[in-house]
Amino acid sequence: MEVVNAIGRRKAAVARVFVSEGTGKIIINKRDLANYFPSTILQFIVKQPLSKLDATEKYDIKINLDGGGFKGQSEAARLAIARALVKINPEDKSALRAEGFVTRDPRVVERKKPGRPKARKRFQFSKR
Question: What pTM did the predictor assign?
Answer without folding.
Answer: 0.90
